[in-house]
Amino acid sequence: MTYDPTNVFARILRKEIPAQLLHEDEHCIAFRDAAPQAPAHFLVIPRRPIARLADAGPGDTALLGHLLQTAAALARRLGLADGGFRVVVNSGAGAGQSVFHLHVHVLGGRDFGWPPG
After folding, report:
1. Percent of the chain with pLDDT over 70
2. What is the distance, to the nearest Å, from the Cα of residue 50 to the centroid of all Cα atoms in its chain?
3. 41 catalytic, yes or no?
């Protein structure tokens, strides 16, 4: 899939749109979701322009690991680790992805059912 540099997350990365930043480093940023689906809901996105998980390649292995490590560290920092949290990556419109910049959802602060919706 072709990456669109005008998507909302690319604009957040460029600081054209404000976001409640929780973390920022050379590989990714994390910020609170604007439409939270749980008491705690934040996103971790790479700085590298990858439209969806299905577009990540072998050279992205370390970056993908970094996104998950960042998600876990933030979940611990926000007090979600003991009660549990959910990590979701939607890849493609059929899976519910609406912004085509790879992003990891981290949700917590309530119980979740299985299977997810």
Report:
1. 100
2. 12
3. no
